[in-house]
Amino acid sequence: DVKVTQSSRYLVKRTGEKVFLECVQDMDHENMFWYRQDPGLGLRLIYFSYDVKMKEKGDIPEGYSVSREKKERFSLILESASTNQTSMYLCASTPGGQGYNEQFFGPGTRLTVL
Amino acid sequence: GDSVTQMEGPVTLSEEAFLTINCTYTATGYPSLFWYVQYPGEGLQLLLKATKADDKGSNKGFEATYRKETTSFHLEKGSVQVSDSAVYFCALRGYGGATNKLIFGTGTLLAVQP
Fold it and tell me: In whole angstroms, what is the distance from residue A113 CA to residue A106 CA?
């Protein structure tokens, strides 16, 4: 079974802190994604990566950066956390190519910024 | 651009009731369509998918038919159970492209009462 793990289920940080959210997948997937999930807004794509060291902005990249140094690991970085970044963060991965591949999701990290 | 619209919730049903969650989409070409489910405290998991017009996706008693003429992909189940209580997301993957990016609806909360 594909497994996508996220480093924390719950995280509490203070305004201005630098925050790292880690995601690891064990199926050699090319593509990895970071979403945030907010009530009434569904899932919104922050960043995605289609290969090691490659990244592209999603719909809401402001205030975030990412890092992908190894194929299995995709990190989301909040350079200076703010209260409006309190949210559920979901990581996903999928194989590359033109097929109709599903995205496999991690359990999510609920981040609270005080 | 591509978009997904699904009915707002919450949807509250009694056990064994019939379920319909409406989903319509806007996209160019021939998108692939998906329903994902998120159980409490978990990440999203694929429920079913359809990759071309008139395809019917089905899983765990849920069904959805890809209707290109009405640009719809409504989710149905004949008899819901308490264990079906979850948030359901409709999503599409645009035609072409190699990164398997998905566009999600806002989600519909289903609450099934015994």
Answer: 21
